[in-house]
């Protein structure tokens, strides 16, 4: 039985999944298996994977368009003590598994270990580090995770038993299913942050990541799903939940405002301010949403002009 199961979900990413797999095969840690769930690809991905033979276990699925479903089918077939998640357009540094497995072996209370991540665009140009965008946290991090998701999926290694005990990825979500899983895992045990940049995430290949409104909407659903599961201790979790809701509501409202949906933006800004009255950056946009579509259209024009 391998110590680590590498879990990859893919759809129509033939060349990209080969690059992701190359980064797995270059790992200095060798006790792993690779399980790839192919969500009904039609671009030759299946043929490329077949050429790898026994190095990869491939699950050929009917297309569902939900990464959570594909990942869960892979998790069901995985036999490792730890699950290492990798998106099929991302890549790992050679020592990633070695470093994370060593940390998790040393502390059985850790149910999730993540690293810093480098984000690049489709041309491999550097964009940002995850730790600069979202401040990392470690230990009992449920409160911090309720406010924001600071764990990049391809940086994460989780205890397989813990993942299965919480039901894996939330299949009702099309996006933000990873955040929902991290939240549930953080109720089970400690989360460890390895302060090394050990994976590269590509922004832009997957159409899902381009639909920001849908992402924010599913993230808000993720918070609602875990709300009834929150423990009574430590204190402050409900406050953290309210701040997380307010943050997402503000981001979604701004998206609506810039796309001409002033009424929906107004409702969400009011919700954000009700959940977190100190979210002062939402106030000017809330006032703008009260003025209707014309000011919002002018703001969109100004934003387009600034981007030229």
Query: What is the chain-wise order of helices and strands?
Result: EHEHEHEEHEEHHEHHEHHHHH
Gap between N and C termini:
55 Å
Uncertain runs are: 205-209
Radius of gyration: 20 Å
Strand segment count: 9
Shape-level CATH architecture of the largest domain? Alpha-Beta Complex
Estimate percent helicity.
Answer: 40-55%
Which topology of the largest domain does CATH recognise? Spore Coat Polysaccharide Biosynthesis Protein SpsA, Chain A
Number of domains: 2
- So, the CATH homologous superfamily of the largest domain? Spore Coat Polysaccharide Biosynthesis Protein SpsA, Chain A
Overall body shape: globular
The fraction of residues assigned to DSSP E strands is: 15-25%
Report the structural category: alpha/beta
Q: What is the element layout, followed by pairings?
A:
Blueprint: E1 4-10, H1 14-25, E2 32-38, H2 45-50, E3 57-60, H3 67-77, E4 82-85, E5 91-92, H4 96-106, E6 110-120, E7 126-129, H5 130-133, H6 142-147, E8 157-159, H7 160-165, H8 177-186, E9 190-202, H9 212-227, H10 237-258, H11 262-275, H12 283-290, H13 293-306
Parallel strand pairs: 1-2, 1-4, 2-3, 6-9
Antiparallel strand pairs: 4-8, 5-9, 6-7, 6-8
Protein described:
This protein is of the alpha/beta class and about 300 residues long. It contains 13 helices and 9 strands. Strands 1, 2, 3, 4, 5, 6, 7, 8 and 9 form a 9-stranded mixed β-sheet that branches. It has 2 domains: about 5-205, Spore Coat Polysaccharide Biosynthesis Protein SpsA, Chain A, CATH 3.90.550.10; about 230-305. Strand 6 (about 110-120) and strand 7 (about 125-130) form a beta hairpin.
């Amino acid at each position: 039985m391998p110590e680590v199961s590498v879990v990859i979900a893919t759809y129509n990413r033939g060349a990209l999944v080969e690059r992701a797999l190359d980064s797995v095969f270059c790992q200095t840690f060798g006790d792993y298996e690779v399980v790839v769930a192919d969500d009904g690809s039609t671009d030759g991905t299946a043929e490329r994977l077949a050429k790898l033979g026994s190095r990869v276990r491939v699950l050929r699925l009917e297309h569902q368009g939900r990464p959570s479903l594909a990942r869960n089918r892979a998790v069901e077939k995985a036999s490792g003590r730890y699950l290492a998640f990798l998106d099929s357009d991302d890549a790992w540094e050679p020592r990633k598994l070695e470093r994370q497995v060593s940390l998790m072996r040393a502390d059985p209370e850790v149910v999730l270990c993540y690293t810093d991540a480098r984000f690049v665009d489709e041309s491999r140009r550097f964009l940002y580090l995850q730790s600069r965008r979202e401040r990392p946290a470690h230990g009992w991090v449920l409160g911090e995770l309720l406010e924001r998701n600071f764990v990049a999926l391809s940086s994460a290694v989780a205890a397989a038993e813990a993942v299965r005990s919480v039901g894996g990825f939330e299949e009702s979500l099309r996006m933000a299913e990873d955040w929902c899983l991290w939240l549930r895992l953080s109720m089970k045990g400690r989360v460890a942050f390895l302060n090394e940049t050990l994976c590269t995430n590509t922004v832009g290949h997957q159409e899902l990541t381009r639909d920001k409104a849908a992402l924010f909407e599913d993230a808000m659903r993720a918070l609602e799903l875990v709300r009834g599961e929150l423990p009574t201790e430590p204190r402050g979790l409900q406050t953290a939940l309210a701040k997380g809701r307010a943050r997402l509501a503000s981001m979604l409202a701004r998206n609506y405002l810039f796309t001409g949906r002033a009424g929906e933006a107004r409702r969400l800004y009011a919700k954000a301010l009700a959940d977190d009255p100190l979210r002062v950056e939402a106030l000017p946009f809330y006032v703008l949403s009260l003025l209707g579509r014309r000011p919002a259209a002018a703001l969109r024009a100004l934003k387009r002009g600034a981007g030229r």
